[in-house]
Amino acid sequence: MKVSFHKYMRCILPIAVVFLLLSACKTTHAVTVYNLEPAPVTLAKDIKRIGIINEVGLSDTKDQVSSLEALVKATDQKLANEGTEAAIEGLLAELQADKRFDTVMILKSSNSIWDSKRSEQQAIPWPELEKLCLENELDAVFSLASYQTDTRITERKTSMEELDLMRMAVVVPARELTLETLIENGWRIYDPFEKKVLDEIEVNEEIVLQAKAESAVSALRSMTNRADSLVSISRGSGSSYGMRLKPVNKAIERQVYIKGSDRIENAKEAVIKEDWLEAARLWQLELNHQKPAVRAMACHNMAVLYEIKNDLEKAIEWAVLAQNHEENKAHIGYLETLKECAKQKHLAEQQLKALAVLSLKN
Question: Is the pTM of the predicted complex or chain greater than 0.90?
C-alpha cells in the first residue's frame, strides 16, 4: 500500500509534537543517591567454620565436532566446568577475607551427595550434609547449587578485507557470528544441624561476543577471549555472593524538581552538572516563595541534596518541611522512605562495627 509523503507527514508530525511537549513538560530530573544498607544475609555468631561445595558437578565434554551448533555446545560444556571452578574460587577468596570465620575450605567431590537424590527432585540430603560437617568440623555449608550456560547463535553474511598474495587489501565474502551467552548460577547456604536453607539466590549474567571470518566456525575459533570473559564473570559472581554477608552501598534513583518557578528551572543546569552548591543556592532562594507548592519543591530538592551527601538526618528535616508546605502523596512518601533508609543505615553501621571488632581481635 502506497502512502503519499504529505499524508505520511500529517501522521508523523502530531506524534513528534506530542513527544516534544512531553519532553518540555517534564517536571523532574533523576539523580542517583547511595544509601548504606544492612547485609542481605545474617549468619549466627557461632557459625565460624565454613565449607564450600559444588552441587553442579562436571559436564561431559566431547571433542571432534564439526557443525557450528555442536561446536558451540561442546565449548559451552568445557567453559561451564571452568566457570564453576572460578565461581567457587571467587566465593572462597571473599569468605577467607571475612574475619568472622576461623576456617573456610572447599569440599571436593561433594556433588556425589546429590547423585542418589536425583530421582527425588533434588531433595536436600540433610543427613549427608550433617555427616559432611561433622567429619570436617564445620558449622555451615555454602553451595554453588546450580550453574548453566545457554548460548544464542546469530549468523549473517557480510564482507571483510584481507591481504591477497600481492599484499594488497581486497574485499572478500565473510560470515559474522554473534554469540549471546546467558550464565545462570544459583547459590545457597545450608545449616545442616538446623536443617535450614539460610539463603538462596539466583544470578544471571550475559556475555555478548562478535567476530568475522571466512566461515562461522573460523569466527567462533577467533573468539579467544570468550573463556576469559566467562571465567571472570563467574569468579565475580562467587565474590559477589560472599559480599552478601556485608553491608553494601546501594544505588537508588531519586527525582528533583526542575519545573515550578524560574529559579528552580534555572537550577536544572547545575543539577545536570552536579554543581550542588549552585543548585542549593537557587533552591534556598525559593524557601519564601508565595506559593506553598514551590516552597515544598525547594525543600524536597534540598532533602535529596542531603541524601546525596549521605546526611539522612538533615534530609529528613528538609523532607518534613516539604510536607509541611504541601502535604501530598509524593512528599509524604519520600519522608517515609527517608525514615526507613535511616533505620537501615543504623543497622548497617552496627554490622560494620561488629566486623571492625572482629578484625581487631584477629
Answer: no
